[in-house]
Amino acid sequence: xxxxxxxxxxxxALLGRTSTAERVSDILxxxxxxxxxxxxxxxxxxxxxxxxxxxxxxLREAFRLLTHERLLVHELNRGVFVRVLTVxxxxxxxxxxxxxxxxxxxxLGEPPYxxxxxAAAVEEGQRAAREGDWxxxxxxxxxxxxxxxxxxxxxxxxxxxxxxxxELRLAFHVVxxxxxxxxxxxxxxxxxxxxxxxxxxxxxxxLLRTYLQDSLERVVEVYRRRVTSAS
Length: 231
Description:
mainly alpha, 3 strands, 4% strand
């Protein structure tokens, strides 16, 4: 916990003079997504509030916001914990991803599309793989899908999927073999990018739909085994 709190203290500067619960929740959301607070971790009000230099009321409001996003859970008489997803949660996350991401690709309209950020995410994943940073590959994969959703040009869709992707990271943090989980999708991200560069949104959507189904099966298989062995 000391290491995590040290990292939070470094984030204090991000709050500036206009500290708000929303900005605190942004910091904690990022830290949870990065794995600084793994699923099942109890979050101490005193320690985190002290590290960030915010009031107890502000921190509690941030906790409330993240609980609403299903990243945290409040347990009576025990405190606030980073949520541990169920297999059903993981399946629902992928169901939502399929509905939204495929609809975004299907609705892109006439090419060309603005794909620079998507291409940068593909290169980010390749670079992380060359360095053997498989958690970094997972992060790059999330960035790829976030930029794919951003092609819709909808702030509301971006906001919805920000929470969905943050929840997905909770599942990734339980998996003990990130290379096996993420490596197969490096090439598939590039295939989707190439289809979009060619202006073939139908091919891109089919690749994405198959990709998400295969990813769901792989994540559920690994996640179920990991959660069962930990219980």
